[in-house]
């Protein structure tokens, strides 16, 4: 049966990972970016277009762009499949990496609970399993943070989505202003919590290792009077 100290550390690690999964789930359900662009068509400035995107759905608001205003909601993946392939691939990669985050975080929780009732020190179900799963979670979330911003900055995703969704032509979208939203920023505390989960297990594992080394101290470290006896 594990000690109370071990139970406490592994349950704390599981709790931190569970909180991170909650944050990630909310992040994936809310908006990630908002882009405002000036709309120029037929030789004059005709207003603006604002596109707000989450991972799976988005919203387009046109203010006299090019002639009439409207607001419409669209599914992200079908909309991206109608334009060039690069934004679709990068966006799909982000969603795939976030799925990996979910899976590895869930595995980390299961391993933590298992260790709170058992002592599988030398197997992948021990601390090494938590190190691996939580490290993959943190690294994957950092990659998403980088890839998502690159998709916004280096591609013409928003400029191509507006005419494609609204089915308009002869319009040029200029002066793009980007704003990342809550869903994107929630990846930062998610990564931090994953690293904290590793830290708790490392602190316990290091203390347990030090204790075992002290118990296995070689006989030459014993006091001379004990060796002479």
Automatic annotation (TrEMBL):
It comes from the Eukaryota. InterPro entries: Clarin. The keyword Transmembrane applies. Keywords: Membrane, Transmembrane, Transmembrane helix. GO terms for cellular component: membrane. One of its GO terms (biological process) is sensory perception of sound. The chain crosses the membrane at residues 7-28, 88-117, 129-154, 182-204. It is a multi-pass membrane protein. Pfam families: Clarin-2 (PF25807). The keyword Cell membrane does not apply. It is found in: Membrane. Belongs to the clarin family. This is Clarin 3. It comes from Xiphophorus maculatus (Southern platyfish). The lineage of its organism: Eukaryota, Metazoa, Chordata, Craniata, Vertebrata.
């Amino acid at each position: 049966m594990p000690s109370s100290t071990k139970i406490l550390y592994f349950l704390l690690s599981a709790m931190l990972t569970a909180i991170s999964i909650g944050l990630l789930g909310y992040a994936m359900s809310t908006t990630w970016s908002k882009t405002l662009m000036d709309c120029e068509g037929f030789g004059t400035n005709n207003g603006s277009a604002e596109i707000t995107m989450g991972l799976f759905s988005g919203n387009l608001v046109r203010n006299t762009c090019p002639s009439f205003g409207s607001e419409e909601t669209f599914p992200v993946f079908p909309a991206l499949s109608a334009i060039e392939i690069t934004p679709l691939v990068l966006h799909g990669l982000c969603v795939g990496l976030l799925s990996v985050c979910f899976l590895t975080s869930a595995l980390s929780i299961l391993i933590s609970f298992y260790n709170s009732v058992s002592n599988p020190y030398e197997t992948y179900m021990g601390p090494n399993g938590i190190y691996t799963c939580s490290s993959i979670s943190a690294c994957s979330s950092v990659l998403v943070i980088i890839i998502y911003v690159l998709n916004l900055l280096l591609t013409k995703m928003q400029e191509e989505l507006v005419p494609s969704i609204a089915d308009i032509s002869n319009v040029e979208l200029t002066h793009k202003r980007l704003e990342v939203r809550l869903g994107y920023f929630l990846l930062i505390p998610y990564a931090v919590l994953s690293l904290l989960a590793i830290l708790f297990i490392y602190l316990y594992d290091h203390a347990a290792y030090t204790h075992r080394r002290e118990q296995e101290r070689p006989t030459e470290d014993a006091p001379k009077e004990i060796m002479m006896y």
